[in-house]
Design goal:
Elements: H1 16-49, H2 67-94, E1 103-110, E2 113-118, E3 123-125, E4 127-131, E5 135-142, E6 147-151, E7 156-160, E8 166-171, E9 176-182, E10 194-200, H3 202-210, H4 218-228, H5 231-235, E11 253-256, E12 260-263, H6 266-274, H7 297-309, H8 311-321
Parallel strand pairs: 1-5, 4-10
Antiparallel strand pairs: 1-2, 2-3, 5-8, 6-7, 6-9, 9-10, 11-12
Subcellular location: Membrane
GO molecular function: copper ion binding; cytochrome-c oxidase activity; heme binding; oxidoreductase activity
Family: Belongs to the cytochrome c oxidase subunit 2 family.
């Protein structure tokens, strides 16, 4: 259906999502064209038939035009609306659910450039190299103001927000170089905030990746930051400070003050680092200092990647080093359960309540 619209009326289509969006656009165009044709046809017909001086019957309405008829066409219109709503919503929701095997890329926007880094450690400015046919999960944030990450050929647009993380994903279907734009006015050089996404064959991408300078991945950088910024002084198994363990924390549901719960994901970890007193874990005092202004967005992404990807490593370290007498869990929790929901990064230096 997406091919019914002439190519010169739309951008090039180069992703799985683009084909779906084009189908919706084409469907809406056809439905709208049909409605416009019907309305114009009726207007012209009635204008001619009931023109001044015509012998058309201007008496009572025919029996066809009844309350049942009005209910029928109103119900049909509602059905079409609900169908379009379901169709568009299902595709929009799918834009937030990346496949589990998707390649992860962190994107930091700033005036006026795009900085990207893949989990393998490859870093780029205003460019993003990806293999064709592979799903790519984007985790976006902004270092200053609101930006909007837009790839017209992929029909992909997602805001990059300061102090928050947003996500989206795409799967390119053809190789080539595609425009990357910012579509949220962000200052003087907004119009120059341009980049490109370069889609390559898998073997070409592998060669390009191997030719990049040797760099640590996000998790490795996060591991060094974890020690350099003093996180390990409170969260390591051997720490004298009774702080929550981070072992096995990813994806766990944790209890918060106020009879609330939260799932540990990128957004939760980021908030715990920047606003630790907002979501306080049950059983711990809100004494962790905020790291807002002390860590860059890239450093926060590295720490999150370390906690997420290094969770198995943390499990192993703590299972080997934690003495039976040590208890860094919340009251009532056993230190033998490293995946306890109470072990969260809400406060690196928390003290259990008496």
């Amino acid at each position: 259906m997406g091919n019914l619209i002439p190519a010169f009326l739309k951008p090039e289509s180069a992703s799985v999502q683009a084909a779906k969006v084009d189908m919706i656009f084409t469907g809406l165009t056809l439905i709208s064209a049909g409605i416009v044709a019907l309305v114009i046809g009726l207007v012209v017909t009635f204008a001619i038939r009931f023109r001044r001086g015509s012998r058309a019957n201007r008496g009572e309405l025919p029996s066809l035009v009844s309350s049942e008829f009005e209910i029928g066409w109103t119900a049909a219109t509602l059905f079409v609306f609900l169908f379009i709503f379901w169709w568009a919503t299902s595709i929009e929701i799918g834009a937030y659910s990346a496949p589990k095997d998707a390649m992860e890329v962190h994107v930091v926007a700033k005036q006026w450039m795009w900085k990207t880094q893949s989990a393998s450690g490859a870093r780029e400015i205003n460019e993003l190299h990806v293999p064709v046919g592979a799903p790519v999960r984007l985790i976006l944030t902004s270092q200053d103001v609101i930006h909007s990450f837009y790839i017209p050929a992929f029909r992909l647009k997602r805001d990059a927000l300061p102090y928050q993380q947003t996500e989206t994903w795409f799967q390119a279907t053809k190789t080539g170089s595609f425009h990357l734009l910012c579509t949220e006015f962000c200052g003087t050089d907004h119009s120059r905030m341009l980049g490109r996404v370069i889609v390559m064959e898998p073997q070409d991408y592998a060669r390009w990746l191997s030719a990049q300078p040797e760099r640590d991945g996000l998790a490795e950088l996060g591991e060094r930051l974890f020690t350099a910024r003093g996180c390990s002084g409170c969260h390591d198994a051997g720490s004298k400070v009774h702080a929550p363990s981070l072992a096995g924390i990813w994806g766990q549901a944790v209890p918060l003050e106020g009879n609330r719960t939260a799932t540990v994901d990128e957004a939760y970890l980021r908030d715990s680092i920047l606003q630790p007193k907002r979501d306080v874990v049950v059983g711990y005092e809100p004494i962790m200092p905020s790291y807002e202004g002390l860590l860059t967005d890239g450093e926060i992404q590295s720490l999150v990647a370390y906690i997420r990807l290094g969770t198995d490593k943390l499990d192993l370290i703590q299972s080997l080093s934690l003495e039976p007498s040590q208890n860094i869990c919340a009251p009532g929790q056993s230190s033998a359960s490293p995946r306890s929901p109470a072990m969260v990064p809400g406060a690196p230096a928390q003290t259990p309540r008496p």
